[in-house]
Amino acid sequence: MMTAQSYRMNMIETIQEELELEREKRMVLIQKYNKGCTAIDAVQYGLVVSMIGFGATSLGAMLTAVGIPIALAMDVGAVAAGILSIANSRLGKYLKAKMNKHE
User: Fold this and answer.
1) Residue 11 falls within a domain, yes or no?
2) 8 A C-beta contact, residue 50 and residue 81
3) Residue 10 lies in a domain
4) With 90 as the cut, is the pLDDT of residue 14 above it?
5) Exposure pattern of 4-34 as b/e (b: 16+ CB <10 Å)?
6) Taking the alpha carbons of 82, 77, 57, 62 in that order, is the dihedral positive or negative?
7) What does the alpha-carbon distance between residue 42 and residue 77 come to, in Å, rounded to a whole number?
8) Has residue 20 got a pLDDT over 90?
């Protein structure tokens, strides 16, 4: 038969083990969210560079009389990259909020 003191000690050990497991799970989640945030930042930089490239190419193509259709296609690409950039930014904010929640 267990004494009251040994029962309390067993409960304390059980609670400590649960807390350690929870801490390890949180660290794994934080690492996953951090990787996701890093990937989203890289995609964001790529989209910004593509928007600048599409805009500059469009401007250069507009200066020639033959390049108007090409300029229009580049403008569509710049707008699409802008929309993707906005969506990517919102996704990044969502992931950062989730990561902060687990810290």
Assistant:
1) no
2) yes
3) no
4) yes
5) eeeeeeeeeeeeeeeeeeeeeeeeeebeebe
6) negative
7) 19
8) yes
Torsion angle of C-alpha atoms 88, 90, 96, 102, degrees rounded to 10: -120
Q: What is the pLDDT of residues 24-62, one digit of tens each?
A: 998 998 888 889 889 999 999 999 999 998 888 888 888
Report the number of distinct structural domains present in the chain: 1
> Looking at residues 71-77, what average pLDDT do you find?
88
- Token pair for 12: 């304390």
pLDDT at 21: 95
3-state secondary structure string across the chain: CCCHHHHHHHHHHHHHHHHHHHHHHHHHHHHHHHHHHHHHHHHHHHHHHHHHHHHHHHHHHHCCCCCHHHHHHHHHHHHHHHHHHHHHHHHHHHHHHHHHHCC
Give the residue numbers spanning the domain of 66: 26-101
